[in-house]
Amino acid sequence: MIAQPGRYAIPSAAMEPTLHGGDGLAGDRVFTSQWEYRFHPPQFGDIIVFRAPAIADGEHTDPAEKVENILIKRIIGVPGDRIEVKPSGRGKTPDGEPAYAVFRNGAELAEPYIKEPMEPPGPGATHGVNQPLAIGADHYFVMGDNRNDSNDSRYWGALDRPRILGKVTTILPSPLRKQ
Questions:
Q1: Confidence bin at 2 (pLDDT 50/70/90)
Q2: Residue 54 is part of which domain span?
Q3: Is residue 179, in this structure, part of any structural domain at all?
Q4: Are 141 and 75 in contact (CB under 8 A)?
Q5: DSSP per-residue letters across the chain
Q6: Is residue 140 part of a domain?
Q7: For position 165, which CATH number holds?
Q8: Is pLDDT of 169 > 90?
Q9: CB neighbours of residue 179 within 10 Å
Q10: Based on the structure, what is the number of domains in the chain?
């Protein structure tokens, strides 16, 4: 993610359809604020920019080369929540697999913002997948809106609060975005 303090360019498709990624002018831009979190903690549903733990670096296989990338995701679980990603029993993916859904504190989330039905998570998705995960104090479970193309908490665990750089307050669509 290309960044200046409080201003970020979206390079990937992980948050589609909410945010569109792309190189140069092809990607949306967002502005963030840390100010709001001085008065209350991050909330369920907030879209945040954060410094991901090195384990989240999907581009490097050598642990010594992994870096802490700047990512953007939606908060799905807050401290005290129990998150589970499992088959929903409602519908199928285009491949005929059972569609998965997120369950927060036992209730399936209604998520009109996701791109498409969630496919079964890939190998390595062990956090909150097919078993409940309790979110601890000062931790947040984050996921991309494009669940089938998102490296998120399912793969590397809950996010520590100090890693959050800010809440997205403004989205500037790319001038090249197809409406």
A1: very low
A2: 2-172
A3: no
A4: yes
A5: -EEETTEEE--SSTTTTTS---SGGGS-EEEEESGGGGTS---TT-EEEEE--GGG--S--SGGG----EEEEEEEE-TT-EEEEEEEEEEE-TTSPEEEEEEETTEEPP-TTSSSPBPPP-TT--SSBSS-EEPPTTEEEEE-SSGGG---HHHH-PEEGGGEEEEEEEEE--TT---
A6: yes
A7: 2.10.109.10
A8: yes
A9: 3
A10: 1
Q: Is residue 178 part of a domain?
A: no
Neighbours of 66 (CB within 10 A): 17
Residue burial 79-90, b: 16+ Cβ < 10 Å; e: rest: bebebbbbebee
Residue 23 neighbours by CB under 8 Å, 6+ apart: 11
Has residue 136 been placed in a domain? yes
Q: pLDDT averaged over the chain?
A: 89
